[in-house]
Amino acid sequence: MQTSNRSRIAKPIVWLVLVALGAFGLSFLGFFPWSGLNCSMLEVDLDSGRTRTTRYLFWIPVQRTIADTSFTRVLNVDDRKGPPDWQAVNLTSPGTHHSPHFRFHGAAWQIRLLEVIWDLAETLPSVRRAQALEVRRLWRGRGNYHGADEYLASLEENLPPP
Fold it and tell me: Would you say residue 108 lies in a domain?
């Protein structure tokens, strides 16, 4: 009788484990795209320009890294007083080569673009700070990354010729 009780408990557990492993394996083939089953989320803190990458397995965050960017490094401590305002940028899954579109989908690229512009124009630190603050103001003002597009395009147009 005790054996049959164990069998009644063990069978569903074995099936549950097999289904979970099967779903996890299928996620590498592109099934269940962008689900918390197996994905990575990139976010940008609109206050500081830091990036945060979180790796999820079975909807549990298993790894989280936060990194400063060139945007972060040009801001003064007083410029970053507010609480972090993390906004989703990209969500990627194995087998899926694109991300759903988020309101701040282009923010990480805009930070990188600013860095390239600063290097090419040999921009002074005080000007870099002012430009980073303007991008941040535009992000907040429009509630998406599109607000900074025209501003960054104007910075690109004013780059010195190669």
Answer: yes
